Known about the structure:
CATH class: Alpha Beta
Oligomer: single chain
Shape: globular
Bound molecules: beta-D-fucopyranose
Number of strands: 15
Number of domains: 1
Number of helices: 15
Largest sheet: 8 strands, parallel, barrel
Order of helices and strands: EEHHHEHHEHHEHHEEHHHEEEHEHEEEHE
Distance between the termini: 6 Å
CATH architecture: Alpha-Beta Barrel
Helix content: 40-55%
Amino acid sequence: MTRISFPDDFIWGVATSAYQIEGAWNEDGRGISIWDTLSHTPGKIMNNDTGDVAADHYHRWKEDFDLLSELGVHAYRFSVAWPRILPQGAGAVNPKGLDFYDRLVDDLLRRQIEPYVCLYHWDLPQPLQDKGGWPNRALVNDFVEYARIVTRRLGDRVKVWFTHNEPWVTAFVGHFLGEHAPGWKDLGAAIRALHHLLVSHGLAARAIRAEAKQPVQIGITLNLNPVYPASDSEKDREAANQVDMMMNRIVLDPLLKGTSPISESTMASLLTGKLIQPGDLETIRTLDILGVNYYSRTVIKHSNKIPFINVEQVYPPGNEYSGMWEIFPEGLYVLLKRIQEEYLAPLGDSVPRLMITENGVPVPDGVDFDGQVRDERRIRYLRNHLIQLHRAVQDGVAVKGYFHWSLLDNFEWAWGYSQRFGLVYVDFKTQKRVVKNSGRWFAEVVKANGFATD
Ligand code: FCB
């Protein structure tokens, strides 16, 4: 029998986000977010689903935390809903919002589960969108103030903070592809939004460190996709390189190298006025934890279909796919090796801790006649990705933890409830929870800190 074991201090966890699970969209003084606006607009979300009720976690969090204890995880990554704390985005604080997260943190600590708090998982208060949203630099200060307020309340207990979840997705899927809130299709706005998100990361990091009552670790979580050319041709390789720049280097370079990969000429052709102000790149480059969200890879070929962009995504035949993406475990290894070699190795001693902060797969799960959820595909996905992760660790990449996405089935953004990512099944009619077979399998892995590969 071959076993793989992870390092002794390896951290096992699961992740969720506020809008995807909480529901209670208009309770206890919560303000409106851009996701309420988008999901309440007919035709924007699959089946016109909304996060109004979601997994009703706002009312059922105790039951859900019992599930965390049952899984035996060491840490739980969740996000704070900005509109619960500041219903107008800035100004008056809603005490009931802070109380809610205060209770969550206390209960997690009581269970010896480390809270990993993310400040922004996409639910921007609508009044700040009305001021121009992330493409407007004024949002940076609003975010920093919000970070300060949450840290003042939770910073005596929370040691690990993430500023943003997937700023690339906020910027590009929200402002260029138009599939996420606020639903814009403007490349210049996406680039501006991304820069402001990153600057707000740097300034919020300073604010959190200043307000916290103890040493804290500041992280960011990035969606990173290894980009493969569809063929060996020069044109396809160049196209893949371009996409790698626009999806990966555009966030990694500023955060870890203090540089921007976007050329001055591209900036000038897309933007009016100067975007990067003196000192910005120094501000952005501060990180204690680099959180990697890995789901899939991207395969790219050269194409004239879309002028200016000249690239097209292709889906190689014969591989395994889920309802959303190609399943490609080896990409995790390739990605981690690249981060290590290109970004972390040159940093010497000041290297941030590397963690997988999301990884998971949607499976059209259902409850069988005997009450079990037999999600074999998720178990296979988990097992194959953990094997690749372990391979990277063996090869010297210091990955410190793994968080599965997600604890619960939830509102999967533009896909509504059509995609189930949970280790725990949620019947959205009754809100009944059932631990899936993958949840049981994961709990065994956590307990043993490894598993048998044959
Ligand atoms: C990530 C998001 C997360 C979830 C997964 C499937 O991009 O961070 O909220 O939707 O994808």
